[in-house]
């Protein structure tokens, strides 16, 4: 497993859960398919299963938000309509969205052959990896999407150049996949808020870690800044998970706090970066169903934390997003890909020395 920011002595606010990962939320599973082949394939698929494979049809309350719409997250019209999410969520590269959408369908058909004919509106999100990856080469297949779902597990997960984050860049350094979590108490109960980030955003001059502006200090060796695309292009996808009982509207409010965590790392939100966020709650199991009617069905009920008590959960969102992005950068290793393009690793020893002085 990769070394994380805290292992270099960095301090972050808030109390982490056991693994400091989105998989601290009970039931959440994460799986990767990582594709590194030849000189120009640097891509993959990440699967996030809100309740694991065994309870894939049990809805979760959910909400979403787009800070900047130069990107894609499918299934959001249905999510807005019903406030619920049940199927695996996949994150990949921009031109593999359709393939991964089909992959979720293929997985459902293969895993549950007894199901009647039905419809599925999966959530698939993307960021652009065309600097390092041959993004037009159709290298991600539906089988790769199925494999990512089948590989999903709880426990500690890898970060950096894995899954959908394989070919991504962040603040002019090697980007990719990252995660973090926090514990939040509510009366005598304790809940977890976790984040998964696919980080492919930010220009070098913006980079800030724990309040220290590092862009000028680390200005050298910035091949992405010298490339044709505008600095800061790429996109960022964030998935927030919690076991706290929340309404769909409250989860949407949680996603609107994600940009505050991103901003702590320096970004001002590039026009060419699709910044799209999803949040779900695994509480209230059995509610928010949407089945074909078969006579009169029972009422459904939702228990939820009062709106006036949400500030600690908003704090947690900001904290986990900030730390997950920093974990991405600390996990990065220099990668060379398509046409010899190079994405340098963050010089973590130098950064840690500056930040811990």
TrEMBL record:
Protein origin, superkingdom: Bacteria
InterPro entries: ArgJ-like_dom_sf, Peptidase_S58_DmpA
MF (Gene Ontology): aminopeptidase activity
Pfam families xrefs: Peptidase_S58
Chain coiled-coil ranges: none
Family: Belongs to the peptidase S58 family.
Name recorded for this polypeptide: P1 family peptidase
Species, as recorded: Nocardia colli
């Amino acid at each position: 497993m990769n070394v994380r920011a805290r292992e270099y002595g960095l301090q972050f606010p808030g109390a982490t859960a056991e693994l400091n990962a989105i998989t601290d939320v009970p039931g959440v599973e994460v799986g990767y398919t990582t594709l590194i082949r030849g000189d120009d394939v640097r891509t993959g698929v990440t699967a996030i299963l809100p309740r694991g494979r065994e309870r894939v049809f049990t809805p979760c309350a959910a909400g979403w938000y787009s800070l900047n719409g130069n990107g894609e997250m499918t299934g959001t019209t249905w999510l807005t309509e019903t406030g619920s999410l049940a199927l695996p969520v996949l994150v990949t590269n921009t031109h593999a969205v359709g393939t991964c959408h089909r992959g979720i369908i293929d997985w459902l058909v293969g895993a549950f052959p007894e199901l009647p004919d039905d419809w599925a509106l999966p959530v698939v999100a993307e960021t652009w990896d065309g600097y390092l990856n041959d993004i037009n080469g159709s290298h991600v297949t539906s089988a790769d999407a199925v494999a990512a779902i089948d590989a999903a597990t709880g426990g500690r997960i890898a970060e950096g150049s894995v899954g959908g984050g394989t070919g991504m860049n962040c603040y002019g350094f090697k980007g990719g996949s990252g995660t973090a979590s926090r514990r939040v108490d509510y009366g005598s109960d304790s809940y977890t808020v976790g984040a998964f980030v696919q980080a492919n955003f930010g220009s070098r001059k913006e980079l800030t870690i724990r309040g220290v502006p590092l862009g000028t200090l680390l200005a050298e060796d910035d091949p992405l800044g010298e490339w044709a695309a505008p600095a800061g292009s790429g996109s960022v996808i964030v998935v927030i998970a919690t076991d706290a009982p929340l309404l769909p509207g409250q989860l949407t409010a949680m996603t609107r706090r994600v940009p505050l965590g991103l901003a702590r790392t320096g970004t001002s939100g590039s026009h060419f970066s699709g910044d799209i966020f999803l949040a779900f709650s695994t509480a209230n199991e059995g509610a928010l169903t949407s089945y074909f009617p078969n006579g009169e069905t029972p009422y459904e009920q939702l228990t939820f934390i009062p709106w006036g008590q949400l500030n600690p959960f908003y704090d947690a969102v900001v904290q986990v997003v900030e730390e997950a992005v920093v974990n991405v950068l600390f996990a990065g290793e220099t990668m060379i890909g398509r046409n010899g393009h190079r994405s340098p690793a963050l010089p973590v020893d130098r950064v840690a020395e500056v930040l811990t002085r």
